[in-house]
Amino acid sequence: MELQTERLMLIPCTEEALHSSAPADDYEIGPHISMYITELKEDPTLTGWGVWLVIEKQTRSIIGDIGFKGKPDANHTVEIGYGIVPSAQNKGYATEAVRALIDWAFSFDHVKTIVAECLEDNVASIKVLEKVQMQRTALEKNMVKWALKKEG
Description:
By secondary structure, the chain is of the alpha+beta class. The protein has helices at 15-20, 31-42, 93-106, 123-131; strands at residues 3-4, 8-12, 22-23, 51-56, 61-68, 77-84, 113-119, 135-140, 143-149. Strands 1, 2, 3, 4, 5, 6, 7, 8 and 9 form a nine-stranded mixed β-sheet that branches. 30% of the residues are buried. The mean pLDDT is 94.
């Protein structure tokens, strides 16, 4: 399974995928990835509903990761999160990756809503979420909550 955009490849994160792709100099494997790899070994059906690697086609480097915080819940909702390395920021990669993953998730009948959250002062993330047509739904403490409902 792989998603292609104009400049990116999105590949579900596995140990094999991590070792077969060269990370950008400033990409570090975070604890969320290690935790996800462990969960994936216990439940292979998580593939696609966890971490995806964001790979720049031109350099074939991992420039970030994106994904969902689990399978769709009882309300047919998934939460998306993402991060792009500093050297690849402000180039539209996050928006490109988020759009691709939203399209993938909405291709499933059991996904009706995608939610996200970001710090209220995270201007870059706010711009990404606005560009993909997410709507602000709440401000809790210093976190802005977002949602995008599937059309139809």
